[in-house]
């Protein structure tokens, strides 16, 4: 990302660091998260217009607390310390940090000095979110308090001349009423950011750097799942190098209604690539025949998937690149930012056999690795991709196979696919498709007695699952309106074969998971 103003966020292990980055991006300012272990020279080499020091679980008074090169404060680059970042700033520059008599946690009314450029345009008193045990009791020389609460004399401090600011509260969380204003004030008033991070600028740069990386003759292979990340990556690469991109889409037969057709349409007409649709439906069905254990199903499908993809990859000419729809949260989580700890290693590369991996001598092409999910969707919209594809809800790799309890048969697949299509249609018609994060139907393996016309029936119970969540780690069940549920239920029992009863899953995660298997 050359030529855009850049903020560097130094991560001290806070749970909210990603959120700070997202808020900065929402203000149309590009930012990168780096570990606190990153040497100052590397931070400076990124030519940041401002530096944000995140919160973190440690206490600056601990012997093994994370620290930072004090020279960071002498570069003339604006700094904003948040929570631990504030205590670190105070401590490093000669102030005093002490354990508070009581922990300050939750929504706290704070008085702000609105003459400070950090708090310009804000109300003099509003609620901010606090979560700290230690606090600053004496500011370093040259600093003044610019916010206080009942328990804390230094809710924020500033050395305006040196453009060093720090806040004890968390401006990045929505519980801080004017948090976004604080961040935007730092970016615009103090760092001089112009808001030059736009998705159309990103697209131009991404296209250019793909061309540069791949060269005039390079070829790229990408596994297309139909999900938003791989689809947007494919569209960008298509724009850069056209049909020197080969996309392999494995149709395992567990996709939702019309999904394969939509992929075919988009990547043959709108973003022409060399599209290989592997029709592996029979192959997968055979593999899972008679299998009802959830883990066994997942394993079989995962392995088969890698085999199908590898078969296609082997056919590719040499000197090639492998593309992936890696996004920024994957980068942060997989440890390249968090210092040493690898929390999650991800995606296709890991699963590919060595001889296949060895074919990709050019390396990896990851055009959206600096983007958050909402930015990926914006890029998709900007590129003119279909709404369904851009706003697609998460869909598990094993697809509908893990939404059929017990053994999978073509009949059961039809039942779950058709009911899922009805649910999606009705949720969209009700205007709820963006506010509910994931919704689908599950074919339980239970039959119950019903009556249809004058006939007794003995058919399946179908469950509806709809959830709201921020991160899918914890979820709540969506409070779908009764009238909507009534309509969906009526349509499903009337239109979908083999179902005579519909139930609604009203379980949170935990203890349940989102998917049933
Ligand atoms: P669970 O069921 O674990 O699901 O609460 C959390 C989120 O992850 C999705 N999910 C998967 N996604 N491959 C994926 O790409 C998988 O095997 C898989 N299993 C679950 C699930 O749909 C939900 O969004």
Could you characterize what this model shows?
This protein is 33% helix and 24% strand. The protein has a nine-stranded mixed β-sheet, sandwiched between helices. Strands 12-11-10-13-14 form a five-stranded parallel β-sheet, with helices on both faces. Strands 15, 16, 17 and 18 form a four-stranded mixed β-sheet that branches. Helix 6 packs across helix 13 and helix 15 runs antiparallel to helix 16. The chain is globular, with a radius of gyration of 26 Å. It starts with 5 loop residues before the first strand and ends in a 13-residue tail after the last strand. Bound molecules: xanthosine-5'-monophosphate. The site of xanthosine-5'-monophosphate (XMP) has 10 residues, from loops.
Summarize the topology.
Elements: E1 6-11, H1 17-26, E2 30-35, H2 40-45, E3 50-53, E4 79-82, H3 84-92, E5 96-112, E6 125-138, E7 144-148, E8 156-159, E9 164-167, H4 179-190, H5 199-214, E10 219-223, H6 228-241, E11 245-251, H7 259-270, E12 274-279, H8 281-288, H9 294-315, E13 320-323, H10 328-333, H11 347-351, H12 354-357, E14 363-365, H13 373-382, H14 387-390, H15 410-429, E15 438-452, E16 455-468, E17 476-477, H16 482-495, E18 499-504
Parallel strand pairs: 1-2, 1-3, 3-4, 4-9, 10-11, 10-13, 11-12, 13-14, 16-18
Antiparallel strand pairs: 5-6, 5-7, 7-8, 8-9, 15-16, 16-17
The protein binds xanthosine-5'-monophosphate (XMP).
Residues 394, 396-398, 438, 472, 509, 513-515 line the site of xanthosine-5'-monophosphate.
């Amino acid at each position: 990302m050359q030529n855009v103003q850049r903020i560097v966020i130094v991560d001290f292990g806070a749970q909210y660091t990603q959120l700070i980055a997202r808020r900065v991006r929402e203000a149309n300012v590009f930012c990168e998260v780096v570990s606190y272990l990153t040497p100052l020279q590397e931070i400076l080499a990124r030519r940041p217009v401002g530096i944000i020091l995140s919160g973190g679980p440690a206490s600056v008074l601990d012997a093994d607390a994370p620290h930072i090169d004090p020279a960071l404060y002498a570069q003339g680059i604006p700094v904003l310390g948040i929570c631990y970042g504030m205590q670190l700033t105070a401590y490093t520059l000669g102030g005093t940090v002490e354990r508070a008599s009581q922990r300050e946690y939750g929504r706290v009314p704070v008085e702000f000095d609105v003459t400070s450029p950090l708090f310009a345009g804000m109300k003099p008193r509003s609620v901010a979110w606090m979560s700290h045990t230690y606090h600053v009791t004496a500011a370093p020389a040259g600093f003044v308090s610019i916010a206080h609460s009942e328990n804390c004399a230094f809710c924020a401090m500033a050395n305006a001349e040196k453009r060093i600011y720090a806040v004890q509260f968390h401006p990045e969380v929505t519980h801080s009423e004017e948090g976004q204003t604080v961040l935007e004030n730092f970016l615009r008033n103090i760092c001089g950011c112009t808001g030059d991070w736009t998705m159309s600028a990103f697209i131009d740069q991404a296209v250019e750097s793909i061309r540069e990386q791949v060269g005039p003759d390079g070829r790229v292979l990408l596994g297309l799942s139909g999900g938003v990340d791989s689809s947007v990556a494919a569209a960008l690469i298509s724009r850069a190098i056209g049909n020197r991109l080969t996309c392999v889409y494995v149709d395992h037969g567990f996709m939702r209604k019309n999904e394969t057709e939509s992929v075919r349409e988009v990547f043959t007409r709108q973003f022409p690539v060399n599209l290989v649709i592997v029709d592996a439906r029979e192959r997968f069905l055979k593999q899972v025949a008679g299998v009802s254990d959830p883990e066994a199903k997942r394993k079989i499908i995962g392995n088969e998937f890698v085999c199908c993809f590898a078969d296609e990859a082997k056919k590719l000419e040499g000197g090639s690149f492998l593309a992936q729809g890696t996004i920024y949260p994957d980068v942060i989580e997989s440890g390249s930012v968090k210092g040493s700890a690898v929390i999650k290693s991800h995606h296709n590369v890991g699963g590919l056999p060595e001889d296949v991996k060895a074919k990709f001598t050019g390396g990896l092409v990851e055009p959206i690795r600096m983007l958050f999910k909402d930015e990926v969707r914006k890029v998709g919209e900007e590129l003119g991709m279909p709404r369904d594809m851009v706003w697609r809800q998460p869909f598990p790799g094993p697809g509908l196979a893990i939404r059929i309890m017990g053994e999978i048969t073509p009949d059961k697949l039809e039942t779950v696919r058709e009911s899922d299509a009805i649910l999606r249609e009705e949720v969209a018609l009700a205007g709820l498709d963006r506010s509910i994060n994931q919704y689908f139907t599950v074919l339980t393996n239970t039959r119950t007695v019903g009556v249809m016309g004058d006939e007794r029936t003995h058919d399946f119970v179908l469950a509806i699952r709809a959830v709201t969540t921020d991160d899918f780690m914890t979820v709540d069940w969506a409070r779908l309106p009764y009238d909507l549920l009534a309509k969906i239920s009526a349509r499903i029992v009337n239109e979908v074969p083999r179902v005579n009863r519909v139930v609604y899953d009203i379980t949170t995660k935990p203890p349940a998971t989102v998917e049933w298997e």
